[in-house]
Amino acid sequence: MNHLLRNGLAGAMLMATCAGFAMPAQAGTTIDGIRQRGETACGVSTGIGGFSIADSSGQWTGLTTDFCRAVSTAILGDAAKEKFVPLSPQQRFTALQSGEVDMLTTVATWTLTRDASLGLLYAGVYFYDGQGFLVPKSLDLKSALDLDGASICTATGTTSELNMADYFRANGKTFTPVVFESQQEARAAFFSGRCQAFSADMSYLSSVRASDAPNPDDWQILPEMISKEPLGPVVGRNDLDFFTVAKWTLMALVEAEERGVTSANVDEMKDSKDPGIQRLLGSSGDMGEKLGLDAAWAYRVIKRVGNYGEIFDRNVGPGTPLRMERNANALWTHGGLMYALPIR
Amino acid sequence: MNAAVSGLRYRLFGSISNSLLTVAMLAAFVMLLPPLLRWAFFDATWAAASPDACRANGGACWAFIHEKYRLILFGRYPYEEQWRPLLALALAVVLVLASCSLRFGWRMVLGGWLLGTAIILLLMRGGTLGLAPVPTDLWGGLPLTVLLAIGGIVCAFPLAVLLALGRRSRLPVVKSICVATIEMVRGVPLVSVLFMASFMIPLFLPGRLQVDALLRALAAITLFSAAYLAEAIRGGLQAVSPGQEQAAAALGLTYWQTSLLVVLPQALRHAIPAIANLFIGLFKDTSLVGIVGLTDLLLAAKQALADPQWRTFIVEGYVFVALIYAAFCFFISRYSRALERRLRNER
C-alpha cells in the first residue's frame, strides 16, 4: 500500500508540473490593464509579408505591428513593450472578445456587419486595400470587363470568390472560378498557365508581380478594384478611452506626415513655431491630457515608429519586396484617402 | 557470392511478372533519380544572402533554410536566448533515451523525469537564476512540438490507464463515466477539442481565472490522446487471460494490487505496438495547434515562408520540416520494435 501511495504522489506531482502555470489576472479597463502589465497585447496575423510577419530572428515587423507599437508607445511611453499574439482569421475576433488581446492589428476588413454585430469597434483605417486582377500582358487586356469567359485563379476561405461573382454578374459577364485552398497554390497554378487571371487583394498582387513572377514586366495589374477592403485596428467596446487613444494615434501618424514631421527631425520639430506642430508634439496645448496621456505622447510615437509615410515605406513601399505605390493610401493632398482629423 | 547473385536473380527475375516489375522500377529510378539529385544537390544553392542566387542556379534553395532555420526551429523565442530551448530539447531527448533504454529502475526514471521537467521548464520560462523570463506565447518551433507530444503522452498515460480500468469496472457509475468520456472525446476531431480549449474556455472562465494558452492546448491534447490510449490499453487488458486475475485474487491481492502489479504490466506489453502507433500519430497531430495560434514546427515554417522575399521556396521549407518529423517518427517506430523484441526475450 505504501508502494501505491508513493505512486499516487508521484503521479500527482507530475500532473502538478503539467499544470504549473497560469496567466496573470486581467484588470478592469483596457488602458488600466495595459499600464498594470506594462505591455500592450496585440493580435496579429500569423504571417503576411509587409503587414505582420516574424523576420528571420523572430521579431515581428510590418505595417500593422508598427501600429500596435505606436499605440503602445502612446500609452506606456518610452518603456513600452508589446506582446504579439499570432491569430488565425477564425480566432481573431474571439481572442479580442475574451480579452486575450487588447487590440487587433490584423488585416481584417472593416464592414458594417463586423462593426455592428461583434461587440467591437474599428478605430480607423491604416491601409486601403481592394481586390484586383493580375494578368499576363500578352493577353493585351484594357479592363477587367475584358475577362468575360476567362478562368480566374483565386484562393478559397476569403471573400474573393464572392466579390468576383458579384462583379461579373452586375456587369452581365461570365467567368470560371478556379478555386484553390491557399494563395500559394492559386499563385503557382496561375503562373503555370492554369488560368488567364489571378485575383486577390491589390497589396498581394503587387508583391506577387514583384517577387514571384518570372519577369515582372510581362504581367500587369488591371486598373479595376472590384471590392473595398479597408483594413484597420479593432478594439473592444468595454473601454472607449482606449478606442479614442487608438483612433487618435492613427490620426497623429497621418498628421505628422502632413506636417512633415519624421522620426529623424522630430527633435528639431519640437521647437517649431508652427502651432499645429506644437499641439501635435505637446510643446503647447493639452492634447495628451485630454486623451488621458502625457503631453509628449505623439512625440514619442513618431520618434519610435515614424509617421504614416515612413511606416508605409519601411514595410510595404517601393524599396521593399512588396513594391507598393501609395495610391489610395497617399495623403489626401496627394490624391489619396489618408486624412487626419484636426488635432486641437 | 554466386549464391548471392542467384538469390538476387531469383528475387528480381524469378517470374515474368517479377521481371516486368523490376524493369519498371529500374526505369522509374533512372527517370526520376537524376533530376531529383540534380535539384536537391548539384544545382542547389546552399548559402546565399538573397534569393536571386537561387533563381540563377535553378536547383533547390537550401539558402532559404540557412536564412530561416532559427525561426523554423525555435519560432519566436528570443534570438539571443535560443540556446535555452536547444538545451531543453537535448535534455528531453536524453531523458527519453535514458528511460527508453530500460537500464534504470522506475524510481530513477520517475525522479529523473521530475527533475528533468523542472529543469526544462526553468530553462524555457526563465525568470530565476539570471535567466530572462520568456512567456509561453514566445515558445515555438521544435521544442514546442516535442513538449506538446511528450507532455501530451506522459500526462495522458495515467488518465488513460484509469479510463481503461474504469471501462472494465464492475461498478456501473464508474464504468458509464469512463465509457462516456472515451466515446465523447473520440467522437470529435482534435481540431474541435483544440478550438474548444483555446476559444470557448476563456469565454466561460471569469477574467481573473485565465489559463495559459499553451497549457490549454496541452490539456486538450492530453484529453484527446487519453481517450485513444485508453482503448489501446483496454485492448492489451483483454489479451491478459482471466486466470491471471483469478490467481492474483486467490493470493489475496486487492483490486489495485492485482491491476498494477499483475494485469497492467502484461497488458502494456501487448499494447506496445498500438501505443507507439498512437504516439507517432500524436507527434504529427501536434501540428494542429498551429490553427489555434501556437507556433509549432509547421507553423514556424509557414511563418518563415510568408516572407515575400523567400516565399517561392515552399518545397524546400516543407521538405526540411518533413525530414525532421520523419526522423522523430522513425526513431519512435524503431524503438517500439526494439522494445517488443526485448520484452519478448524476457518472458
TrEMBL record, chain A:
CDD domains cross-referenced by the UniProt entry: PBP2_BztA
Transport in keyword set: yes
SMART domains hit by this protein: PBPb (SM00062)
InterPro entries (UniProt xref): Bact_solute-bind_prot3, Solute-binding_3/MltF_N
Signal peptide boundaries: 1-27
Residue span(s) of domain Solute-binding protein family 3/N-terminal: 39-269
SUPFAM superfamilies: Periplasmic binding protein-like II (SSF53850)
Keywords annotated in UniProt: Signal, Transport
Coiled coil: none
Record PANTHER family: AMINO ACID ABC TRANSPORTER PERMEASE (PTHR30085), AMINO-ACID ABC TRANSPORTER-BINDING PROTEIN YHDW-RELATED (PTHR30085:SF7)
Family: Belongs to the bacterial solute-binding protein 3 family.
Protein name, as recorded: Amino acid ABC transporter substrate-binding protein
Source organism: Ollibium composti
From TrEMBL, chain B:
Residues of the ABC transmembrane type-1 domain: 142-331
Similarity annotation: Belongs to the binding-protein-dependent transport system permease family. HisMQ subfamily.
Organism name: Ollibium composti
Membrane topology field: Multi-pass membrane protein
Protein's name in the database: Amino acid ABC transporter permease
Pfam families: BPD_transp_1
Transmembrane feature ranges: 12-33, 86-106, 113-132, 144-166, 187-207, 213-230, 278-301, 313-332
Entry keywords, A to Z: Cell membrane, Membrane, Transmembrane, Transmembrane helix, Transport
InterPro entries: AA_ABC_transptr_permease_3TM (IPR010065), ArtM/GltK/GlnP/TcyL/YhdX-like (IPR043429), MetI-like (IPR000515), MetI-like_sf (IPR035906)
Highest taxon of source: Bacteria
Compartments it resides in: Cell inner membrane; Cell membrane
